[in-house]
Amino acid sequence: MKKIAQVIVDMPLMQTDKPFSYDIPKHLRDVISVGSRVHVPFGNGNRLLQGFVVDFLDETDTALKSVAEVLDFEPVLNKEQIELADKMRHTVFSYKISLLKAMLPSLLNSQYEKLLIPRETLSEDDRQVIFGSQFSLSANDLDKTLENKVTRLARSGQIQVDYLAKDRKTIKTETFYNVNKQRLSEVDLGNRAKKRLELQQYLLENSQDGKIAELNKCFSSPVVKYFIEHGFLETYKVEQNRSDDYFGRVEETDFLTLNAQQQNVVDSVTEKIGQESKPFLLQGITGSGKTEVYLHIIDKVLKLGKTAIVLVPEISLTPQMTHRFISRFGNQVAIMHSGLSDGEKFDEWRKIKSGQAKVVVGARSAIFAPLENIGAIIIDEEHEATYKQESNPRYHARDVALLRAKYHEAVLVLGSATPTIESRARASKGVYEFLRLTQRANPLATIPTVQVVDFKDVIGQQEASNFTPVLLDNIRDRLAKKEQVVLMLNRRGYSSFVMCRDCGYVDECPNCDISLTLHMDTRTMNCHYCGHQAAIPNVCPDCQSRSIRYYGTGTQKAYDELEALLPDARIIRMDVDTTRQKGAHEKILETFGNGGADILLGTQMIAKGLDFPNVTLVGVLNADTSLNLPDFRAAERTFQLLTQVAGRAGRAEKAGEVVIQTYNPNHYAIQFAKNQDYEGFYNYEMDIRRQLSYPPYYYTVGLTLSHRDETLLVNKSYQVMEKLRSYLSEKVKILGPTPKPIARTHNLYHYQIIIKYRFEDNLEAVLNDILEWTQEPDNKDLRIAIDHEPQNMM
Ligand code: ADP
Ligand code: ZN
Ligand code: ZN
């Protein structure tokens, strides 16, 4: 008997980071489940808070407050997810409620009203008792004695539940019609009602069911409405999935026959499905057919009656990518990424929850997809930093994947052409099973040749700032051969900043210690951190000089230069500015793929996953931007990016070439990228990491403290460091506190402390202590972020 519910309430504080007990009133006992969302009174004022039921108890001695309302007929979380939050809490210094909420589509975390709608199958008696003469009923108005009955009917699908969030319907429906042919043929509409006669004629000739929306389009809605009101048309509603149209447009494709290396990988992986196994690291060069391998693994998983999750970095979730999965597995696929509307996300979630979707392809948060019986979890481009969430809760999808794979005895495959140094080291130590693909899958494709061009060698010879003569000659050559070119510039905006040549004044954001970026499309100076906008200065605000100039480069400037140099070339630009609109990304790639442009010029979003056979030249305009960042992973990131972008060239018969322009041609990251020598890079980088005690030799935790008052912040930061020193062992290295590389944003100063450790039993407890300490009244405006294995030191 469920008498007491254990509830985690939506109050993200250390003191409330545990379940509270509530009495379950009799009328709710059959309705409530583990994973249900509830409203419960909390605190002295008994304000109603939302919460999740995580467990039940039989009894307790003390008098308890009661659960006020159960929000769901079907629990929104399952037991695995609730356990997952408990396990994650050891390394993610956020609160359980934040972890649980991260597992749900945002629509279910917002305030809404629950609406009950009878379905066709509901018996006339039940309909009368529950709904009376109403078409639908708000759950708030439901007679409480009927709650159990309604729950039963909702669970068996006879009552539909809709959530009205901020006046928006979460469930999308389409209205269809039936023609009442008998009545329609007998009616006389008179000769003057021309429109009505037309519709009558049409319906008598085409009397199968159809969509009301289509009739409205062809015959105007007042006419259609007249027909409905007179009973010539009967209407009914059908639930829709917002992505049905998108899925409908994808054609089926066949599985490719694997080559021996691919087959070997698929065999090694699939034989472990359903057993506890080590994670697999699949290191396969670009174009080696990793995606085809994933498709075969999933095929096997489905044949075993199991399900699969495929994680792909957000910017690689191109239509090209998703189509490959949909074209093989059709409606069994659900796609989840941030480009979807809240409603679309909710639909995909429901599709998974109901069991229709068995293969989830998505970005980071798709790792929480509520699949049952998982057979495989695949993380493509496992080196991507985007798998770490940079805001609360700061989890890494790989860590979550490890926990879920263990729970389900699923295989976990981490795939990349350039694995992180950490993952590759784990493979060397046997923590991961190491699998490799060393050849391009298309037997005619070859590995591209790479040329490094030193900007310093061509000073004074350039026609335009972004293009060396070597690169330009190469581009001209491809244009003449009717081949395609991809150019990458790792920056957005027109110019990066504005500087006075006389006094050195730089136009900076008043809220953040960072220069403003010039945007020609909006003719403004923008802050990329806080969104501050200002006019473009014509004279220097400090010395009134007119020698104010634009420095740095941007995709738009490169585009303008290129257009002036090659007036006949058809160029498309792809960056954050040109892809802001929904579907724009898709359109650009489609145009380029169909040969509608000769040159694709873009930011790093072009480095991933593009597979166009006619691309024979890839140019990297400036390899240095990521090299000089104050982050120990700067070299690794640069190497990865250059290798990825080089992989876009020569993917079919035509040989590919890569030109990298740089001011640092001898930097090891660029040299190893030039030789496409991952192993060389790995060994060199491991040496550096060992010398500097960085991962994978040490684990790291980053603490970022923020406050408006810098003096106070420094003071508090030292207090935190003292706490760490006194509780942790001598072996731990503590760096800082130091100002962050970008020391101020949104009018807040930021200081950071880095902890480096190998084994440290006390660490979790100390960090939780610090979290609790920051909530003392004395520290009211102090903010803290505790980041386990931070991926971004900026
Ligand atoms: P990766 O994910 O490693 O970059 P893909 O799976 O995208 O590689 O494969 C690269 C190209 O090779 C694609 O065009 C794909 O269709 C093709 N390909 C993959 N496997 C095979 C195969 N076994 N036979 C023929 N072509 C293949
Ligand atoms: Zn000046
Ligand atoms: Zn700013």
Molecules bound to protein: adenosine-5'-diphosphate, zinc ion
**CATH topology name of the largest domain:** Rossmann fold
What sort of overall outline do the alpha carbons produce when their principal axes are compared? globular
* Number of DSSP E strands: 34
Portion in helices: 25-40%
Main sheet properties: 7 strands, parallel
- This entry's quaternary arrangement is single chain
Low-confidence stretches: none
Domain Helicase C-terminal: 535-689
Binding site for Zn(2+) 1: 500, 503, 540, 543
GO molecular function: hydrolase activity
Cofactor: Zn(2+)
Provide an overview of this structure.
The chain has 794 residues and is an alpha/beta fold. It has six domains: 3-108, 3-Layer(aba) Sandwich (GIY-YIG endonuclease); 111-166, no CATH class; 173-239, Arc Repressor Mutant, subunit A (Orthogonal Bundle); 245-437, 3-Layer(aba) Sandwich (Rossmann fold); 449-495 and 552-684, P-loop containing nucleotide triphosphate hydrolases (Rossmann fold), CATH 3.40.50; 699-788, Ribosomal protein S10 (Alpha-Beta Plaits), CATH 3.30.70.600. The chain contains 23 helices and 34 strands. It has a seven-stranded parallel sheet with strand order 15-16-14-17-18-13-19, with helices on both faces. A six-stranded parallel sheet has the order 20-30-29-21-28-27, with helices on both faces. Helix 19 runs parallel beside helix 20 (668-674). It is globular, with a radius of gyration of 30 Å. The protein starts with a strand and ends in a 6-residue tail after the last strand. The relative contact order is 0.08. The mean pLDDT is 87. The structure holds adenosine-5'-diphosphate (ADP) and zinc ion (2 copies). Residues 256-259, 262, 284, 286-292, 441-442, 611 line the site of adenosine-5'-diphosphate. One zinc ion is lined by residues 509, 511-512, 527, 529-530, 532.
